[in-house]
Design goal:
With 149 residues, this protein is α+β, with helices and mostly antiparallel strands. It is built from three helices and seven strands. A seven-stranded antiparallel beta sheet has the order 1-7-6-5-4-3-2. The chain is globular.
C-alpha cells in the first residue's frame, strides 16, 4: 500500500515543522484526533500512541516518531496496531512564502491472499488517505490563521 497526501501552506517552514512534530498537541486542534500519548519521551525520537477516527469509526496505533529538523522531515514507524509495519514520512519543502507538505504512507502486508488488497483499499484508501487529508487541511487553516495575526 502506498498513499500520498499533499498540500501547500502559506507560512514559515519552522512553524509548520514544529506544529506537525508536536503530535501530543494534535487533539487540541484536529477534531478527528481523539488522543495522543507520549509513551517514551525524547527530543529527536520517541514512542507515541495515537487515536483518531474516520468519520466516527475509531482507529488507534503506536508509532516510533523520529525528527529530522535539518531536512524538515518527520518519520513514523507503526509498531503496534493493525497498521504495524507502516512507514510514514512527512516532507516539508519551502518555496518562498509557501511550504509544500507531503505525507507518504507505505505498508506491505503479505498475508495471502487478501492481505495486499486489505492494506491498499481498507487501510490505505479508506482510512489513511481520509485521515491524512483532514490533518493537512486543518493544519493549513491553523498555520495560515496564525500567520494572519
Amino acid at each position: 500500500m502506498h498513499t500520498e497526501n499533499a498540500i501547500t501552506m502559506r507560512g514559515n517552514i519552522e512553524d509548520i515543522f514544529a506544529l506537525a512534530s508536536a503530535v501530543e498537541e494534535w487533539p487540541r486542534f484536529l477534531p478527528h484526533y481523539r488522543w495522543v500519548k507520549i509513551l517514551t519521551p525524547g527530543i529527536s525520537e520517541r514512542l507515541v500512541a495515537m487515536a483518531a477516527h474516520r468519520d466516527g469509526f475509531p482507529v488507534h496505533w503506536t508509532a516510533r516518531q523520529r525528527l529530522d529538523p535539518v531536512r524538515y522531515q518527520i518519520h513514523f514507524t507503526h509498531v503496534r496496531g493493525i497498521s504495524r509495519g507502516m512507514e510514514v514520512t512527512w516532507f516539508l519543502e519551502a518555496d518562498g512564502a509557501q511550504v509544500h507538505v507531503r505525507i507518504v504512507h507505505d505498508l506491505t502486508w503479505g498475508w495471502p491472499p487478501w492481505g495486499p488488497w486489505f492494506a491498499r483499499y481498507i487501510i490505505g484508501e479508506l482510512f489513511v488517505h481520509n485521515i491524512a487529508t483532514k490533518t493537512l487541511r486543518v493544519m493549513k487553516q491553523r498555520i495560515e490563521s496564525m500567520a494572519a495575526h
